[in-house]
Amino acid sequence: MSRFLKDRYSKLEVYTPGEQPRDKKYIKLNTNESPFPPSKGVIKAVNKSEVKDLRLYSDPTGTALKTALAELHNVKRENIFLSNGSDDILNFSFMAFTEKGAMFPEISYGFYEVFAELHGIESVKVPLKDDFSIDPKDYIGDGRMIVIANPNAPTGLCLSVEEIEGILKQNPDSVVVIDEAYVDFGGQSCYPLIKTYKNLLVVQTFSKSRSMAGARLGFSIADEELIADLERIKYSTNPYNINRLTTAAGVAAVKDNDYYIKNCQKIIAARDYTTRELEALGFFVIPSKANFIFAKSDKIGGEDLYLKLKENGILVRHFTKEKIKDFNRITVGSQKEMEAFIKVTKQILEGK
Ligand code: PMP
Fold first, then answer.
1. Of residues 110, 105, 147, the one with CA closest to residue 15
2. Ligand 1 atom nearest 108 alpha carbon
3. What mean pLDDT is reported for the chain?
4. Dist. CA 156–CA 324, nearest whole Å
5. Which pTM was predicted?
6. Nearest atom in ligand 1 to 206's CA
7. What is the homologous superfamily of the domain 7-37+258-349 according to CATH?
8. CA 256, 262, 268 angle in degrees (round to 5)?
9. Which residue ranges make up each domain of the chain?
């Protein structure tokens, strides 16, 4: 760290992304990526002529991609915001809607805490219930921005659309951000509620169900006024936040929606298989609606299992937070990858 860095940044506890090691080939079950490639349409769209056009700036209005997403969701283009990964939308929300602070679950996506710190926002961290679920009654923001991942990460548990509507009704003076990064794996999106609730900001991503984590593309659905607020911030930071190749890939991905729906069904089947097998091995598994499973065993500690799996070429995610340190978060990959994971886990438990 240089002596030039402002004090407020030098004290930041930064977000630690999942490992992306290059030392050998791992079965990567640690960052909730898709095991499936992008659709054929996406691969075709990112072509030579698009690459040649990289000399030109991308379209700052994002009209083509907004149109495709608006049609898919039956909303207006003005209800869509595009960003460089959904992390950017979350960051913008923390900049934009937190005059009175922020509120989010104590156990959730670690970036919420980092964004709050980054922008010097006072935040309330709401404990989960003993069964790791969120109690909607706990969310009375009094003007604070409320952020809930639904399904929550790393638990995989969902609130129903009715429960989210209850939170919206209870908090007319707070923006309620529903982070639906994992909604396509068995949850239900609450975006139709934007027509009734002007304080709802739904955040989604192309990183998980749409196999485009490396392209960095996220989007939001909300009332036009909230979207206009986000645009103000975008035009004050980086108007060309979506590059040309990602835009082309995004439009093609929306057109190939059916392919991605089928992939989600495969992930759900592999998730059910993995849950059954882990339970048969004595694990406690939280019932997940996401493309990951959060599980612990009383035969082996969370960190120990994580390290032994890594030695055997399988990466999962272990968090050191006290309340969840016994668990590991296991991304659901292909059926073959999950069979390999179960086989190795069995061997580890048997001490082989
Ligand atoms: N929300 C949640 C709950 C996540 O787990 C992630 C992925 N780490 C994100 C948002 C951000 O995803 P991306 O920036 O790739 O869209």
1. 110
2. 3
3. 97
4. 13
5. 0.97
6. 16
7. Aspartate Aminotransferase, domain 1 (3.90.1150.10)
8. 140
9. 7-37+258-349, 41-256
